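User: Here's a structure from my thesis project, written as structure tokens. My advisor, Dr. K., wants to see whether a designed sequence matches the one we expressed. Can you design one independently, without my sequence as a hint?
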């Protein structure tokens, strides 16, 4: 059996993270890298049982060919292809907002219009953990290619839809593909790039996520006016096709993580439980009254299914969610912090455009521009936070600073809205909020990937993304309940518009007397957001500060390495 790769602390050589998992590969000069500015802690991966090590080592004829270390150009090509698919997946969650009136005009059945968004959110969120586990088991490249292909097929079906039922079904297909984009892209970046340099790349991913979240409604309006609503989906095909081509060409699969049996029952239970809870969060207070049988039934079903899932995970040899995942302190704290952070973020900022339209009477496009400072702040700080991580080798200080900044920004927004201050004061506060949040998102991903074994990198990253999305949905539901509870019962039209997160010009005129109610209730959501993020900061302070780990000799799992031309 070949000796595992070693590094000399004196020489400072660092084998490339994406290629060094090949057994018996000599440490070439090309694969060496200068040391980071800080010390990297190695985790030995030698199994306790030598016999098991021999059994797990593939025969000579079964070994994968040794690939040369990835060049900077190859990593850059893969990185930008992944950024494109992340952007497409995020855009398609919000791009339909400004196209809904035109879609309803063509397809009718306005009562089901919310399902155009809900179907996508449900299918993408429920599929995230499944993709993470399957990528650990069968390889990142295989799963990301399947996901992009499914997304493009769904986009084509959306563009060709001739009825609302067809469009909703196609949006489910789209979401099933998009659920893999963010978690698998982050896992692939972690496979290719050492921890010391990873923060910068993860910061770029967070920047794209923030930018496309804000740009979605604006692009949707432009494309719908210039072409038609069909093209907000059809334009995914050439853009996504180009990304798919580069992934196929440049990303070569590593060895799978083992011929484990797929946990079909666990996958089914987890999907059903998540769907039940998401239905409550997505439809409760709008399509379903909070005290309706549908809400109670879905919530009860979710609890029963969750209990069944937990019992199944304890009995199964290779469960869809490894129980040891939740024994990791860094992972547990990270999931709680991200859930609380996005609960406060989505719960408050979602209604800023609504506040602008109701109180100031602005149009949809102008109100959407109110979110641009949030995007700019998040983009700047995401990249900046990654560079700081690469320099100091610590992921916790930037996150503490980020949440502290966000708390102050939330409080200032609550005060400025209730005090009737101008947008010249509100927009810098929104920018400040973006700065704070951008310092948290990418470095928390690095912290989780650094704390978990490589074999759990995919499922761990996916679960972090899942809890982040779940927190956002809880925040939206909570803020909707706060605002709706303060509306007079006679204002049914205002409640309907609030549930659909849009407001027509006629409603603005009819509900002019409700401006003060909206002002105070939206200010209250920002105050609640400040308290929620403060709680996240308290939890974050318990996050262990682990030295960044170089796992270049970790057992082969599902990593990808760039291919050569």
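Assistant: Designed independently from the structure alone:
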């Amino acid at each position: 059996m070949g000796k595992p790769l070693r590094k000399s602390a004196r020489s400072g050589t660092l084998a490339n993270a994406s290629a060094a998992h090949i057994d018996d590969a000599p440490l070439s000069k090309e694969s060496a890298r200068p040391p980071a500015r800080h010390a990297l802690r190695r985790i030995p991966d030698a199994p306790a049982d030598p016999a098991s090590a021999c059994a797990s080592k593939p025969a000579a004829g079964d070994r994968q060919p040794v690939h040369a270390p990835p060049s900077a150009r190859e990593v850059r090509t893969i990185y930008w292809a992944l950024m494109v698919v992340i952007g497409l997946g995020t855009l398609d969650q919000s791009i339909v907002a400004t196209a809904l009136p035109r879609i309803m005009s063509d397809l009718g059945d306005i009562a089901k219009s919310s399902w155009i968004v809900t179907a996508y959110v449900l299918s993408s969120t429920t599929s995230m953990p499944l993709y993470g586990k399957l990528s650990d088991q069968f390889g990142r490249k295989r799963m990301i290619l399947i996901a992009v292909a499914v997304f493009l097929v769904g986009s084509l079906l959306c563009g060709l839809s001739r009825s609302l039922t067809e469009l909703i079904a196609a949006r489910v297909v789209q979401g099933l593909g998009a659920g893999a984009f963010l978690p698998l892209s982050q896992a692939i970046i972690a496979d290719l790039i050492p921890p010391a340099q990873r923060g910068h790349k993860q910061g770029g991913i967070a920047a794209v996520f923030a930018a496309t979240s804000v740009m979605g409604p604006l692009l949707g309006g432009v494309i719908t006016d210039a072409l038609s609503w069909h093209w907000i989906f059809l334009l995914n095909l050439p853009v996504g096709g180009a990304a798919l081509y580069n992934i196929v060409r440049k990303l070569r699969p590593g060895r799978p993580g083992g011929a484990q049996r797929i946990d079909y029952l666990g996958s089914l239970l987890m999907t059903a439980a998540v769907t039940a809870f998401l239905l409550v969060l997505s439809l409760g207070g709008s399509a379903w009254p909070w005290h309706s049988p549908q809400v109670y039934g879905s919530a009860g079903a979710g609890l029963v299914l969750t209990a069944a899932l937990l019992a199944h995970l304890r009995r199964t040899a290779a469960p869809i969610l490894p129980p040891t995942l939740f024994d990791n302190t860094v992972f547990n704290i990270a999931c709680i912090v991200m859930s609380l952070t996005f609960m406060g973020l989505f719960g408050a900022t979602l209604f800023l455009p609504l506040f602008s339209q109701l109180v100031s009477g602005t149009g949809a496009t102008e109100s959407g521009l109110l979110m641009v400072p949030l995007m700019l702040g998040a983009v700047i700080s995401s990249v900046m936070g990654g560079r700081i991580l690469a320099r100091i080798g610590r992921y916790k200080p930037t996150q503490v600073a980020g949440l502290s900044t966000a708390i102050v920004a939330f409080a200032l927004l609550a005060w400025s809205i209730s005090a009737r201050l101008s947008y010249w004061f509100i927009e810098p506060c929104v920018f400040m909020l973006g700065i704070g949040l951008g310092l948290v998102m990418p470095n928390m991903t690095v912290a989780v990937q650094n704390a978990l074994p490589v074999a759990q990198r995919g499922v761990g990253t996916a679960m972090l993304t899942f809890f982040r999305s779940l927190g956002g949905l809880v925040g939206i539901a909570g803020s909707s309940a706060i605002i709706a509870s303060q509306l007079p019962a006679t204002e049914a039209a205002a409640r309907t518009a609030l549930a659909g997160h849009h407001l027509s010009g006629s409603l603005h005129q009819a509900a002019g007397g409700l401006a003060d109610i909206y002002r105070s209730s939206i200010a209250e959501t920002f105050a609640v957001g400040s308290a929620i993020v403060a709680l996240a900061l308290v939890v974050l302070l318990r996050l262990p500060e682990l030295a960044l780990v170089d796992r270049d000799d970790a057992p082969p799992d599902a990593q990808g390495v760039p291919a050569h031309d």
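When you compare it with your expressed construct, this may help: The chain has a mean pLDDT of 74.
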